[in-house]
Amino acid sequence: MVDRKIDDQTIEKMEELLNVASDFTRLKIMHALLQGEKNVGELIEEVGASQSLVSHQLQVLRKNRLVSVRKDGTRAYYILNDEHINKLFEVVYEHVKEKEETGE
Amino acid sequence: MVDRKIDDQTIEKMEELLNVASDFTRLKIMHALLQGEKNVGELIEEVGASQSLVSHQLQVLRKNRLVSVRKDGTRAYYILNDEHINKLFEVVYEHVKEKEETGE
DNA sequence: GACATATATGAATGTCTGTTCATATAATAG
DNA sequence: CTATTATATGAACAGACATTCATATATGTC
Questions:
Q1: Which of A1, A18, A48, B100 could bridge to B22 as Cys pair (CB 3.0-4.6 Å)?
Q2: Nearest CB to A24: which of B15, B91, B94?
Q3: A67 located within any domain
Q4: What is the pLDDT of residues B68-94, one digit of tens each?
Q5: What is the pTM for the complete model shown?
Q6: Is A3 within a domain?
Q7: Angstrom distance (rounded) from CA A36 to CA A67
Q8: How far apart (Å, rounded) are the C-alpha atoms in residues B2 and A62?
Q9: Among candidates A14, A93, A100 on the partner chain, residue whose Cβ is nearest the Cβ of B27
Q10: Rounded distance, CA A55 to CA A61, Å?
Q11: B-chain residues within 8 Å CB-CB of A10?
Q12: Which CATH number belongs to the domain containing residue B34 in this structure?
């Protein structure tokens, strides 16, 4: 349990992570990457967004160190950097699914 | 593990929850409420924001059903509606703390 | 070299929203 | 009823940011 005091700086960092996570396109990218390494082309296809948009959002994920890149020839392969993303997905997913059952 | 397919509607709902969670003031409010029921005055004090701001953000939390209100006289007592918020806090907090240790 | 493919990046724009200020509502006290 | 306290709400504004369009960079191929 997160008990008692949390200083504002920590809350700010939590806010940053949540901000990065709270975008449709980035959620789809991260979800795709839960399955493992993917290159940009595969992500574009799976996410169903434009090349530019996917690339921009990958930049956001990179800057926030949620993903890493590995270049191979002209391809760029991305992976999730963080096991916490799995847990974050789980928690949020469970919340949504539970709300569907009860209140809608 | 959240495996394979998640439809866009579910991702949208996840986005909504994360959007609500990804705000400094609301995070402080939710953190305060992790300790239990609080009235608005107490929240204003603990969060250190203006009366108007706290009230507005409580409205956001209410509309998204993350909190419930109980009125008693002129006071309004708020509680967290959802055990998932605990887990969400934990996961995000752990992520931030781990990043502090390693990369900064 | 020229050309094609894969990815990244910059600028521009429109939308969304966090915050403040002012005001309203509701309950209690005198 | 008036005054005061606790909370809510509306309007307005400024800043952030998701998306698109156009263009740049880099690698591989011929």
A1: A18
A2: B15
A3: yes
A4: 999 999 999 999 998 899 999 999 999
A5: 0.94
A6: no
A7: 11
A8: 22
A9: A14
A10: 10
A11: 93, 96-97
A12: 1.10.10.10
Query: 């709300």: which residue's tokens?
Result: A99
Return the closest-CA partner of residue B40 out of B31, B50, B99, A97: B50
pLDDT tens across B36-50, in order? Answer: 999 999 999 999 999
Minimum mean pLDDT range among A61-65, A97-101, B74-78, B79-83: A97-101
Placement of tokens 């300790």 in the chain = B35
The identity of residue B38, as a single letter, is K
Which residues does residue A72 pair with via DSSP β-bridges, in sequence order? Answer: A75
Residue with tokens 């706290």: B54
Helices (H), chain A: 8-21, 24-34, 40-47, 51-63, 84-101
What's the length of chain A? Answer: 104
The protein footprint on chain C, as nucleotides within 7 A of a CB, is: 5-11, 17-23, 26-28
- Count how many domains chain A has: 1
